[in-house]
């Protein structure tokens, strides 16, 4: 289910069926011109990926709004902030929290995160709508889905 | 000019008016049957809401295969391409079945023989929902009704799928 009213109403009716939260973790910046193309494209792909995973497993997974942060910010601080999100999420009986990210700098702080970090190598493409991109994303979704299911 | 005008007598005037009004009434009565008769001609040759899913009918076997296609959908604020999917196969009566992969429990995506434990069934990975091959939900698993079935059409040997129809619960 997604963070929209209709989905949340379904979620509220069947809370006992939902035990997994997916948090897309997406950097933001406007300061480095050279990086803008790459950052926005990765952010787009992450959103598509997260939605597709949610579609595949919608009856057990809640996709919450993305966690955005300034790219060059201090990760120690970000870890604290993201863990405060987890604290709020766990006011509900969720057993599994997955952070999805393309940013490798989180890897170093993985152990301090109160959830599973799924770092994925960034998928780059000139055209996000190409057939090639579609099959690549579909492939990724299938594999990530399998990984998530292995935790259930 | 004014003299010519006076040449229209009362009788003539009434005749003209009545013919005019009568003509309108006749046209009004005739328009619906005529419209009905020629309507099919006006319809575009493409099959309305049906979409070509890129599968030749001769390639459909008794083994469910997943087909994916896209449709344009305007949904409130968004105009978008929506991807759709179906499990297509021929049943014992050689009839084409196209089942929606959306679990009727909470909407996860089911797959044919998705679990090794349950061969010859559709399986939902979220809460172990199961369906027989014809899409009927198996009692004792979370889903409460069968998988929706797509309307289908065959044109030039290609399979066209329309809307998914809900079916009664088991």
Keywords:
heterodimer; A: 152 residues; alpha/beta; Rossmann fold; five-stranded parallel sheet; 4 helices; 43% helix; 17% strand; B: 170 residues; alpha+beta; Rieske Iron-sulfur Protein; 2 domains; three-stranded antiparallel sheet; 2 helices; elongated; DUF2487 domain-containing protein (chain A); DUF2487 (chain A)
Structure overview:
The complex is a heterodimer of chains A (152) and B (170). Chain A is an alpha/beta fold and 152 residues long. Chain A contains four helices and five strands. Chain A has helices at residues 5-13, 36-56, 75-89, 131-151; strands spanning 20-28, 61-63, 67-70, 96-101, 116-119. In chain A, strands 1, 2, 3, 4 and 5 form a five-stranded parallel beta sheet that branches. Chain B folds into two domains: 2-42; 51-165, 3-layer Sandwich (Rieske Iron-sulfur Protein). Chain B is built from two helices and nine strands, in the order ααβββββββββ. Chain B has helices at 2-5, 10-42; strands at 51-56, 65-75, 78-90, 96-99, 111-112, 122-124, 129-131, 149-155, 158-165. Chain B is elongated, with a radius of gyration of 28 Å. The mean pLDDT of chain B is 84. The A-B interface holds A 10, 14, 17, 55-60, 145, 149 and B 103, 105-109, 124-127, 142.
3D shape of chain A? globular
Count of helix runs of chain A? 4
**Number of alpha- plus pi-helical segments of chain B:** 2
CATH class annotation of the largest domain in chain B: Mainly Beta
CATH superfamily of the largest domain in chain B: Rieske [2Fe-2S] iron-sulphur domain
Spatial strand sequence of the major β-sheet of chain B: 1-9-8
Q: State the end-to-end CA separation of chain A.
A: 17 Å
Largest interface comes to: A-B, 11 and 11 residues
Helix content of chain B: 10-25%
What does the largest sheet of chain B look like? 3 strands, antiparallel
Q: Count the strands of chain B?
A: 9
At CATH's second level, what is the architecture of the largest domain in chain B? 3-layer Sandwich
Cα radius of gyration of chain B in angstroms: 28 Å
Class inferred from helices and paired strands of chain A: alpha/beta
Main β sheet profile of chain A: 5 strands, parallel
- Taking pLDDT < 50 over at least 5 consecutive residues as the criterion, the unreliable ranges of chain B are none
> Which structural class fits the helix and strand makeup of chain B?
alpha+beta
